[in-house]
Specification:
The chain is elongated and about 70 Å long. By secondary structure, the chain is an alpha/beta fold. A six-stranded parallel β-sheet has the order 12-11-10-13-14-15, with helices on both faces. A five-stranded antiparallel β-sheet has the order 3-2-1-5-4, sandwiched between helices. Strands 7-6-9-8 form a four-stranded antiparallel β-sheet, covered by helices on one side. Helix 1 runs antiparallel to helix 5 and helix 9 crosses helix 10.
Length: 326
């Protein structure tokens, strides 16, 4: 699940809790060149603005105009069933909304009124998402009825004549160990790749220089944090301190989690020495096969920026494999 959709769900919960009428639009299909993928969401409430994106700005203004002038509500009729709207069906529309290369996209648009049923639905959805619990949201396309189904790990979106089903899995997190320059560069890139980025270090001289906007510092004991906050399959844990005092203790705990990626910075020699240390410290039966060390793909990287690209390339590949698996 993208961080953008997490923010959309949070905004809906906040606005409905304030007894505000809301609109929720979801991309259900794309053709050609589309700015945003299927499953992208946008929330809107009068006077509160837009959260999320459907097209990078091309069609949002047109939708908001129709939401505010009542035309969408009239089209829904007395039953209040969600609407399906396609943008970019003609050359004129593609030019008007600046959709490139023959692009088209189809939306489901819902009007959410602050009734007890709707508030309960969004509240439970938000709790599942923030609690990192996979959940599927179901919307009736005939009358707008809402339902939730909790499941194991099935993401994605499906739609037929009667209902829309959108599965949400936890957003991807990345825990960086060490607050040095390589971690800074990795964090800057990862934030733009739909990772929620956390960092941990106990060395004050490194922490004082950390200024990567949008990242979150882990302040509780790292063993507790790894076990309770970074243990599911939607986490990447990467040690970049190049200091056994930081790296080894985290790797020992990380290898007991379901994290989809575990990596450690260092040369081949450093990696070999690290494996020997960990083999002596790990519980019997705990394998080092999941450890990516040296971290990253071999592209001849030397500078912190080049190393960050190498690391993220390998992490993205592992995330893509996870998405196929689930």
């Amino acid at each position: 699940m993208s961080n953008s959709n997490t923010l959309v769900i949070g905004a809906l919960g906040r606005w409905l809790g304030e007894q505000r009428e809301c609109w929720l639009s979801t991309v259900i299909a794309t053709w050609g060149s589309s700015p945003m993928p299927v499953g992208s969401m946008m929330a809107y409430s009068a006077g509160q603005g837009i959260v999320g994106s459907l097209s990078g700005g091309c069609i949002e203004g047109d939708l908001v105009r129709q939401m505010e002038d009542g035309s969408l509500t009239r089209r829904m009729g007395p039953a209040g069933a969600p609407l399906q709207i396609t943008y970019g069906e003609t050359e004129e529309e593609r030019a008007r909304f600046r959709l490139p290369c023959g692009g088209r996209l189809r939306l489901v648009v819902e009007r959410l009124v602050p009734s007890p049923e709707v508030i309960d639905h969004v509240t439970r959805l938000e709790k599942a998402v923030t609690g990192r619990r996979p959940v599927a949201r179901q919307v009736s396309l005939t009358d707008g009825a809402l339902a939730l189904e909790f499941f194991t790990c099935t993401p994605g979106l499906s739609i037929d004549e009667e209902r829309l089903v959108q599965g949400f899995v936890p957003e991807y997190q990345m825990l960086l160990v060490g607050a040095g320059e390589v971690s800074r560069r990795v964090a800057e890139l990862a934030r733009n790749l739909d990772f929620r980025v956390f960092y941990w270090d106990f060395r004050e001289e490194f922490l004082r220089g950390w200024d990567v906007e949008g990242t979150e510092r882990v302040t509780e004991p790292i063993e507790k944090a790894v076990r309770e906050r970074f243990s599911d399959r939607y986490n990447a844990i990467i040690t970049l301190a190049h200091d056994p005092r930081l790296d080894d203790v985290v790797l020992m705990d990380a290898l007991e989690t379901d994290a989809f990626y575990i990596g450690a910075l260092g040369s081949e020699r450093t990696a070999t020495e690290r494996r020997k240390r960990l083999e002596q410290l790990l519980d019997e039966g705990n394998s080092l096969d999941r450890l990516h060390a040296p971290v990253g793909i071999p592209i001849g990287s030397r500078t912190p920026g080049e190393i960050a690209i190498s690391v993220l390339a390998e992490v993205i590949s592992a995330r893509a494999a996870l998405r196929k698996a689930v």
